[in-house]
Amino acid sequence: MVHLKPQDSDLAIPLKEGDFFGETELVSGRCRNVTVIAGQNCILVETPRHAIRKLTNYVESVGLALNEAAIKRAIQWYLAPEVTENELALLVAACQCKSYAQGDALFQKGDSGDSIHFIRGGSVTVSHDSDGQELAYRFITSGDYLGEWAVLTDSKRIATARTTSATETVEIQGTAFKTLLKTHPGLRRHAHLNCGMAFANDNII
After folding, report:
1. Tens digit of pLDDT for each residue in 102-122?
2. Pick the CATH number of 2-200 from 2.60.120.10, 1.20.1740.10, 3.40.50.1010, 2.60.120.1440
Protein backbone atom coordinates (compact mmCIF):
# COMPACT_ATOMS: atom_id res chain seq x y z
CA MET A 1 0.00 0.00 0.00
CA VAL A 2 1.43 3.36 -1.06
CA HIS A 3 0.32 6.36 1.02
CA LEU A 4 0.77 9.55 -0.96
CA LYS A 5 0.20 11.59 2.21
CA PRO A 6 0.71 9.60 5.43
CA GLN A 7 -1.66 11.91 7.32
CA ASP A 8 -4.48 11.22 4.84
CA SER A 9 -5.47 7.54 4.75
CA ASP A 10 -7.78 8.16 1.76
CA LEU A 11 -4.85 9.00 -0.51
CA ALA A 12 -3.53 5.47 -0.80
CA ILE A 13 -2.92 3.21 -3.80
CA PRO A 14 -2.67 -0.57 -3.38
CA LEU A 15 0.11 -2.50 -5.13
CA LYS A 16 -0.35 -6.09 -6.13
CA GLU A 17 1.96 -9.06 -6.61
CA GLY A 18 4.44 -8.34 -9.40
CA ASP A 19 4.29 -4.54 -9.02
CA PHE A 20 7.41 -2.53 -8.25
CA PHE A 21 8.00 0.89 -6.74
CA GLY A 22 10.82 3.32 -5.98
CA GLU A 23 11.89 4.02 -9.56
CA THR A 24 11.07 7.74 -9.41
CA GLU A 25 13.52 8.36 -6.59
CA LEU A 26 15.98 5.99 -8.26
CA VAL A 27 16.06 8.28 -11.30
CA SER A 28 16.00 11.58 -9.42
CA GLY A 29 18.35 10.59 -6.59
CA ARG A 30 16.08 12.41 -4.14
CA CYS A 31 14.58 11.27 -0.82
CA ARG A 32 11.38 9.25 -0.81
CA ASN A 33 8.27 11.40 -0.92
CA VAL A 34 5.63 8.72 -0.37
CA THR A 35 5.16 6.14 2.38
CA VAL A 36 4.96 2.43 1.53
CA ILE A 37 3.33 0.06 4.03
CA ALA A 38 3.75 -3.71 3.71
CA GLY A 39 0.61 -5.83 3.78
CA GLN A 40 0.14 -9.15 5.53
CA ASN A 41 2.63 -11.88 4.52
CA CYS A 42 4.34 -9.45 2.15
CA ILE A 43 7.65 -10.50 0.60
CA LEU A 44 9.72 -7.86 -1.18
CA VAL A 45 12.82 -8.07 -3.35
CA GLU A 46 15.07 -5.01 -2.97
CA THR A 47 17.40 -4.18 -5.86
CA PRO A 48 20.23 -1.64 -5.45
CA ARG A 49 20.17 1.48 -7.58
CA HIS A 50 23.45 0.71 -9.37
CA ALA A 51 22.15 -2.74 -10.38
CA ILE A 52 18.99 -1.27 -11.92
CA ARG A 53 21.01 1.40 -13.71
CA LYS A 54 23.30 -1.24 -15.17
CA LEU A 55 20.37 -3.44 -16.17
CA THR A 56 18.59 -0.63 -18.02
CA ASN A 57 21.77 0.08 -19.98
CA TYR A 58 21.91 -3.49 -21.28
CA VAL A 59 18.25 -4.53 -21.48
CA GLU A 60 16.03 -2.15 -23.43
CA SER A 61 12.78 -3.68 -22.16
CA VAL A 62 13.70 -2.82 -18.56
CA GLY A 63 14.12 0.83 -19.46
CA LEU A 64 10.80 0.81 -21.32
CA ALA A 65 9.04 -0.75 -18.33
CA LEU A 66 10.49 1.89 -16.00
CA ASN A 67 9.43 4.66 -18.36
CA GLU A 68 5.87 3.33 -18.56
CA ALA A 69 5.72 3.07 -14.77
CA ALA A 70 7.06 6.63 -14.47
CA ILE A 71 4.31 7.94 -16.75
CA LYS A 72 1.57 6.09 -14.86
CA ARG A 73 2.78 7.22 -11.47
CA ALA A 74 3.35 10.80 -12.54
CA ILE A 75 -0.38 10.89 -13.24
CA GLN A 76 -1.75 8.54 -10.58
CA TRP A 77 0.49 9.42 -7.65
CA TYR A 78 1.05 13.14 -8.17
CA LEU A 79 -1.77 14.51 -10.34
CA ALA A 80 -4.91 12.40 -10.05
CA PRO A 81 -4.87 9.55 -7.46
CA GLU A 82 -8.52 8.75 -8.26
CA VAL A 83 -7.92 8.12 -11.99
CA THR A 84 -9.31 4.80 -13.26
CA GLU A 85 -7.24 2.16 -15.03
CA ASN A 86 -9.04 2.83 -18.33
CA GLU A 87 -8.38 6.57 -18.09
CA LEU A 88 -4.82 5.88 -17.10
CA ALA A 89 -4.24 3.70 -20.16
CA LEU A 90 -5.52 6.45 -22.47
CA LEU A 91 -3.34 9.06 -20.80
CA VAL A 92 -0.21 6.93 -20.95
CA ALA A 93 -0.65 6.72 -24.72
CA ALA A 94 -0.56 10.54 -24.85
CA CYS A 95 2.60 10.89 -22.77
CA GLN A 96 6.29 10.32 -23.27
CA CYS A 97 9.47 10.45 -21.20
CA LYS A 98 11.92 13.16 -22.21
CA SER A 99 15.60 13.54 -21.30
CA TYR A 100 17.43 16.88 -21.26
CA ALA A 101 21.04 17.85 -20.71
CA GLN A 102 22.00 20.69 -18.40
CA GLY A 103 21.07 24.02 -19.98
CA ASP A 104 18.47 22.60 -22.39
CA ALA A 105 15.14 24.40 -22.75
CA LEU A 106 11.94 22.46 -22.09
CA PHE A 107 10.16 25.32 -23.81
CA GLN A 108 10.82 28.98 -24.55
CA LYS A 109 8.80 32.15 -24.32
CA GLY A 110 6.47 32.37 -27.31
CA ASP A 111 6.27 28.60 -27.86
CA SER A 112 2.88 26.95 -28.21
CA GLY A 113 1.54 25.84 -24.83
CA ASP A 114 0.47 22.36 -25.88
CA SER A 115 1.79 20.20 -23.01
CA ILE A 116 2.74 20.10 -19.35
CA HIS A 117 5.87 18.56 -17.86
CA PHE A 118 6.13 16.47 -14.72
CA ILE A 119 9.71 16.61 -13.41
CA ARG A 120 10.76 13.01 -12.94
CA GLY A 121 14.37 13.81 -12.05
CA GLY A 122 16.59 16.88 -12.11
CA SER A 123 15.64 20.54 -11.79
CA VAL A 124 14.42 23.45 -13.90
CA THR A 125 14.46 27.23 -13.65
CA VAL A 126 11.72 29.42 -15.09
CA SER A 127 12.92 32.74 -16.50
CA HIS A 128 11.69 35.98 -17.99
CA ASP A 129 13.61 37.87 -20.68
CA SER A 130 15.16 41.18 -19.63
CA ASP A 131 17.29 43.09 -22.11
CA GLY A 132 18.18 39.88 -23.91
CA GLN A 133 19.06 37.97 -20.74
CA GLU A 134 17.15 35.24 -18.95
CA LEU A 135 16.37 36.17 -15.34
CA ALA A 136 15.33 33.12 -13.31
CA TYR A 137 12.50 33.64 -10.83
CA ARG A 138 11.31 30.11 -10.06
CA PHE A 139 13.12 26.86 -9.29
CA ILE A 140 11.31 23.54 -9.84
CA THR A 141 12.55 20.11 -8.74
CA SER A 142 11.44 16.50 -9.16
CA GLY A 143 7.91 15.69 -8.03
CA ASP A 144 6.43 18.93 -9.36
CA TYR A 145 4.99 19.92 -12.72
CA LEU A 146 4.98 23.03 -14.88
CA GLY A 147 3.45 24.45 -18.04
CA GLU A 148 -0.21 24.04 -17.04
CA TRP A 149 -1.06 27.75 -17.35
CA ALA A 150 -0.59 27.88 -21.12
CA VAL A 151 -2.53 24.62 -21.51
CA LEU A 152 -5.45 25.82 -19.39
CA THR A 153 -5.67 29.14 -21.21
CA ASP A 154 -4.83 27.90 -24.74
CA SER A 155 -2.07 30.50 -24.91
CA LYS A 156 1.62 30.69 -25.77
CA ARG A 157 4.37 30.31 -23.21
CA ILE A 158 5.09 33.54 -21.37
CA ALA A 159 8.38 32.34 -19.86
CA THR A 160 11.30 30.03 -20.60
CA ALA A 161 11.92 26.79 -18.68
CA ARG A 162 15.53 25.61 -18.71
CA THR A 163 17.26 22.74 -16.93
CA THR A 164 19.93 23.37 -14.30
CA SER A 165 21.12 19.75 -14.38
CA ALA A 166 20.50 16.58 -16.37
CA THR A 167 16.72 16.28 -16.19
CA GLU A 168 14.02 13.77 -17.08
CA THR A 169 10.38 14.69 -17.46
CA VAL A 170 7.08 13.06 -18.30
CA GLU A 171 5.47 15.22 -20.98
CA ILE A 172 1.67 15.09 -20.94
CA GLN A 173 -0.08 16.35 -24.05
CA GLY A 174 -2.38 19.28 -23.37
CA THR A 175 -5.45 17.73 -24.98
CA ALA A 176 -5.13 14.65 -22.77
CA PHE A 177 -4.60 16.80 -19.66
CA LYS A 178 -7.73 18.85 -20.39
CA THR A 179 -9.74 15.67 -20.92
CA LEU A 180 -8.59 14.51 -17.50
CA LEU A 181 -9.65 17.85 -15.99
CA LYS A 182 -13.17 17.41 -17.34
CA THR A 183 -13.65 14.08 -15.57
CA HIS A 184 -11.83 14.98 -12.35
CA PRO A 185 -12.98 18.32 -10.89
CA GLY A 186 -10.56 17.97 -7.98
CA LEU A 187 -7.63 18.06 -10.37
CA ARG A 188 -9.08 21.10 -12.12
CA ARG A 189 -9.35 22.93 -8.80
CA HIS A 190 -5.78 21.95 -7.94
CA ALA A 191 -4.48 23.11 -11.34
CA HIS A 192 -6.28 26.44 -11.06
CA LEU A 193 -5.08 26.87 -7.48
CA ASN A 194 -1.52 26.14 -8.59
CA CYS A 195 -1.87 28.70 -11.37
CA GLY A 196 -3.48 31.19 -9.01
CA MET A 197 -0.63 30.92 -6.53
CA ALA A 198 1.88 31.29 -9.34
CA PHE A 199 -0.01 34.26 -10.76
CA ALA A 200 -0.04 35.97 -7.36
CA ASN A 201 3.73 35.57 -7.21
CA ASP A 202 4.25 36.44 -10.90
CA ASN A 203 5.36 32.85 -11.49
CA ILE A 204 2.97 31.77 -14.22
CA ILE A 205 4.37 29.79 -17.14
Report:
1. 999 999 999 999 999 988 888
2. 2.60.120.10
